[in-house]
Design a protein that fits this description.
237 residues, alpha/beta, Rossmann fold, two-stranded antiparallel ribbon, 8 strands, 14% strand, transport, ion transport, RCK N-terminal domain-containing protein
């Protein structure tokens, strides 16, 4: 994938001088982001966050990224990316990256607790931001939904589907048929999971993007009000 050389260059550039990085120079400053509007906040610049950053960069979609590991931040800066050192669960840090003007946040932190804190902070202080977050397991997904997440993405589902797609491609199945098969399985899996928990009286947005509450309350509860995981990206464009 093109991502590997894209990141390798930055990693090599900072490898010899990482010890000299001044964390203070990596902190977000409000004056550096006050011209951003309708941007995406990437919370966590690990493997998943880096992929999201590359995709947004290729589409010229404005974004900022946050991470508490200075090596990741320095690597992003070496590539001239808007990556800052900071706790994405801090309302002050979120304000400094223009959260009140952002349209969405992709939350991909390594720590389940960090993901929860970030969802809670955005939901409480910046309700304008739609939050898309990965869950480590179902219980974690439930907690994230209760914290106010717009959509909770199962961490283990997508890698499994990608592997299945690769295997199917070797069986000489047309790519359009593979895509249809994967999308149908994804939708069925997430629908069954949601119904399972709703039967127990637990509302769950696990794997689904949900429209704003005001709109949802005015409309019926048809499937049109939900966006499956496969279409989450489209809903943001």
């Amino acid at each position: 994938m093109a991502l590997t050389p894209w990141l390798a260059a930055g990693g090599q550039l900072i490898a010899s001088r990482f010890e000299l990085v001044d964390v203070r120079s990596l902190l977000p400053v409000e004056s550096e982001t006050d011209d951003l509007h309708d941007h995406i906040i990437i919370c966590g610049f690990g493997r998943v966050g880096q992929i999201i950053a590359q995709l947004l960069s290729e589409r010229l979609i404005p974004f900022v990224a946050l991470d508490v590991r200075s090596d990741r931040v320095a690597m992003g800066r070496a590539l001239d990316l808007p990556v800052y050192f900071g706790d994405s669960g801090s309302p002050e840090v979120l304000h400094n990256v223009g959260a009140e003007r952002a349209c969405a946040a992709a939350i991909t932190l390594d720590s389940p607790g960090g993901n929860y804190r970030t969802v809670w902070a955005l939901s409480k202080h910046f309700p304008n931001v739609k939050t898309f977050v990965r869950a480590h397991d179902v219980d974690h997904g439930l907690n994230l939904e209760k914290a106010g997440a717009t959509a909770v993405v199962p961490e283990t589902v997508e890698p499994s589907l990608q592997l299945a797609a690769a295997v199917l491609s070797q069986a000489k199945i047309p790519s359009s048929e593979i895509a249809a098969t994967i999308n149908e399985f994804r939708s069925r899996h997430l629908r069954e999971l949601t119904e399972l928990y709703q039967d127990d009286g637990i509302p769950l947005n696990y794997g689904f993007g949900v429209m704003s509450k005001s709109k949802a309350q005015q409309s019926d509860s048809s499937d049109d009000n939900n966006v499956t995981l496969g279409n989450i990206k489209d809903s943001q464009e």
